[in-house]
Amino acid sequence: MSDVDPKTDAGADRSSWGFPRFAKDFPHHAELDALVAAFARGDYARVREGAPRLVASTEDEDVKRAATMLRARIEPDPASRALFLFAAALLVFLSAWWVAHDGPEGHAPPPKVAPKVEHID
Fold first, then answer.
1. What is the residue range of 51's domain?
2. pLDDT confidence of residue 7
3. Is the pLDDT of residue 66 over 50?
């Protein structure tokens, strides 16, 4: 991936449809614009590394808030984490249930078969 020139490319990206809507009101700052352009391209590793660095290096509170918001946007939703843990626990429970009742070798009791009926005339 090539680096984006924040002065030319990020300014042009603000009016394009691929630019994140939540970032339209972000202040113009060279490093922040580069991070937003990386976010729009899907380069989340760059955002993950660059946003905390920008927060630590700048004095502008608006830029700090924008970089923090940008970093928060790449974190998974807490509800999705909870649902993932629930699904994993359910999988473990059902697997344990299957092993305890039928077992991997199929030691379940044989199914009941109806007895043969013989008619004698």
1. 9-72
2. 44
3. yes
